Amino acid sequence: MKKNLILFIIANVLLWNCTSVPKPVMYKVKGKLLSNYEGKEAVLSVIDKNMSRKAVDTVVVKDSIFEFTVAKQNPQVAIIQIDKNLIPVIIGDGDIVIELNPFSVFLSNISQTTSLLTKKFFDYEKHAMEDKQEGMSILQKLRASKNPQKQDSLKKDYDLWRKNAEQYQYDYINHNKDVVGLIIMQTLLSSQDADFKKIRDAFESYPPEVRTTNFGKYINTVLLTRGATEIGGKAPNFVGTTPDGKKLSLNQAMGKVTIIDFWASWCRPCRMENPYVVEIYNKYHDQGLNIIGVSLDKNKKAWLQAIENDGLKWQHVSELKFWQDPIAKIYGVTAIPQTFILDAKGIIRAKNLRRKQLEDKVKELINE
Description:
By secondary structure, the chain is an alpha+beta fold. The protein contains twelve helices and 14 strands. The strands form four sheets. A five-stranded mixed sheet has the order 12-11-10-13-14.
């Protein structure tokens, strides 16, 4: 009996040793450069759930070629960087072979690429480029025209183009429930006029394996954050650092009407809008209007100089962390200028109003 047990153990050990372990499926990520980058480093990075790049491999360009290998995996968005050139790809579902076009990444030759998602992404971006050129052509004709009737016609053409371009994106995210669809969602969410409900409904219909990718986790975080700052919701309180280094909370800055103004000294549209906001503030501050400016600056000197130059007499906070500003993250801010208009109870009553629309809303809330 003991002898049989020993023979059984030996047989199983031999069987274990003879059993081959399947090799993981590996894909290549290869590029041929049309310009001379000999000896330069090529870095492959994946995009994490915070939309930051995490380097996973580095190679040296030799004979105008760089090549990485990646394991088969749940597809994820990656960036190849060579010098100042950035090449977005989707790794994990096939080989990627790119002969780079020096004028546009998305016009590069990818005929040997077997990554279906990378091909799909490049096709979408090529379509977007061509569509944008059509819109720019209409806009150029509009700017050049001196004929009022022609201008009206071109304005209608441009508005129709914008409407169709936007609808194409929404249709795309509903019919392409993969990582490419997530990328288009991120583009839509960066717009202040994004239809939050449409994007959220589309995202919730995506398969779990897509929603749990790094990009999916990022989209989910943005949607949860934006959900907390939609019109009708209570504005989340926050604490920021003032120019003199003190701490100021939203609750401390509240008035009968409060505008939270996300801006930065380097943001040209913000600076162009400031004179109108100053005019509204001067007119209604004594009646209960308060403004708290949240700057996405990195340079304190530039921030303070812009406050002085533009005559922004209201309260200001900034952590000087650019797009990593914690208050901007709380409010899901991915583009500036962006404003939230609150009533006396801190309820968000409007967002991103400009000039007369902003003044009308302030006047309405003061008179409530």
